[in-house]
Amino acid sequence: MIPTTKTKTKAYSPRPDEDEIMALEIKLLLQAIEFRYDYDFSHYAQASLTRRINNCLKKAQLNNVAEMIPKILYQPEFFELFLKEMSVTVTEMFRDPLVFKALRDKVFTQLKTYSRINIWHAGCATGEEVYSLAIMLKEEGLLNRSQIYATDFNNHSLKIAEQGIYKAEKITEYTHNYQQAGGKASFADYYQAKHGYAKMHNDLKEHITFAHHNLIKDQCFAQMHLILCRNVLIYFDKNLQNKVLSLFNKSLIHRGYLLLGDKESLEFSNQINNFETIAKDQRIYQKINYE
Ligand SMILES: C[S@@+](CC[C@H](N)C(=O)[O-])C[C@H]1O[C@@H](n2cnc3c(N)ncnc32)[C@H](O)[C@@H]1O
């Protein structure tokens, strides 16, 4: 006898539930994106994902999510716009200065013992944080032996990061952050101001490699002494956070450092027993396992 498959059918209703239909359309949209571009957004935090998709709808002047699907499938340039919308790129120089101060006070002493220092800056957005780190390394005499790999999955942001040119109107705020982070010189020593813009000095750039990397599907980096990843994991669900944290663990040397900043934490993650806490409030951890 052929077994019968029980499929759950929904009773027909003349007035469809709009939220349910939107959820279905989003599911199909995410499948189309994965099928066509191999980007899996299904483990992004639901609320922010829906909000960003809605923003994208408005900007593209489309009526519903279903209308986005053929555009995603047949217009790669539309996918680029979508990706830009999905990636929140808010950042600043010496953002949350006390995090940088803790890094300087609690991590650099150990980094000084290495002849070469490998650093992975994951989710670097437009690069402001990376240049801040390079400035601090320079002030501690560590920049010349450091190699920073700064990665993001947003190519548009990476281009801005590579240029290292920022609006001069932000400089007062950045100078204040730099001082709070324990800056030892003058922030003006690190950029050249021209026509309303500040261009970061080339000697900082020489030690930074900007590269495309998707935390969801790409490989780990090898032999890292320090990994920084701030304000990125908040956009992922618990499963994806754990997957990315395992990737960080694999990428670090034994006794390497992981900096998550004050919005994210290893608490309740699958990595809690593999790290010890170095700075509680700034969420700086040191790897203690040998994986
Ligand atoms: C809010 S910014 C954080 C920038 C910086 N780390 C900071 O804290 O100022 C978040 C960044 O994470 C990046 N991002 C999001 N999902 C990603 C993924 N799957 N792989 C790589 N980068 C991702 C975004 O493109 C964006 O540039």
TrEMBL record:
Q: Coiled-coil regions in this chain?
A: none
The record's gene field reads cheR_1
Q: Which domain of life is it from?
A: Bacteria
Q: Which SUPFAM superfamilies match?
A: S-adenosyl-L-methionine-dependent methyltransferases (SSF53335)
Which Pfam families does the UniProt record give? CheR, CheR_N
Q: Know the name of this protein?
A: Chemotaxis protein CheR
Annotated ranges, domain CheR-type methyltransferase: 25-277
